[in-house]
Request: fold
Amino acid sequence: MIIRFSNMRKAAAVTEVTENPRMWRDRAWKEVLCDGAQSAIEYFMPDLASDMDTTKEMTGIPGVELHSGGLDSDEHMRVTDVFFDVPMRDGKSESLALFIEQQHEKHEQFALRVFETYIRLREKRRARTTGFVIYTGNAPNVETYSESCYGFEVSVKFRTFHLPSKSADELSKDERPFGRVILAGYLSLNAGDDLELREKYALEILNTTMERNYDQEKSLFILKFARRIFRLKDPRISEKIKEAYNMQTIPLREYQEQVRLEHAREEGREECVLEIARSMFAEGIPIEIIKKCTGLEEKDITLQ
Reply:
């Protein structure tokens, strides 16, 4: 399946604020849902995955933030709403919301937020609408929303993956690509701010990912997620661990950007080559590799 990311990547490009754990977690989850959308659907919604038309594009839906410009007005936190139009074999469009909630307080509002997301997306798309939720908070029984007003009854149950209720042993046995993502997310919650645990778990995810026979695209979205969720930009993280990740991810990122370049050139969009080159540079890919891939001069690539 081809996945078009133009809208989704813009939504994911938020400023990283390392002192605000919800912000960097929000960005990590949003990006991995953009990069690994099909794997995520196969993991959480195998029934939907079996009905998808994998020969057609799955595209990001414009206007992806439906809640107050993406902010929780009470907590001033970004709400992670990721939306796709999924092509189906029956020819009908399926609007899909991939929703991450990292709220640990005010959990009683969580179910309401998911319900409102569904209503707004359903109204916006006028199409069959579904989705799933990854909940990283501590409250139990958050998968149902109900309300009653003088005889008007509403009760909605949504598919929820309650991450803290799982165990590391259970998650470690799952070898599906998105299973690595879920394990990394679980371990990062357990590690918290413990530097030693963050380093230990980051290496565990790196090693087990590279041991498995995933293709390049899947390996890359797993390792990119792990880099961010374990905050490997932290200057206190061992340089050996950072270098280990670089040794694996730079060739994978180079491959990914080569594919993007080929698609741009096939479609006659040469103006996108410079944008891709600068994106590669921002991702930390060595300048010599970028020059070789794009044919551009260093001064054009690094120009701000």
Remarks:
- The beta strands are 2-4, 57-60, 71-72, 77-78, 80-87, 93-101, 128-135, 144-149, 152-157, 160-162.
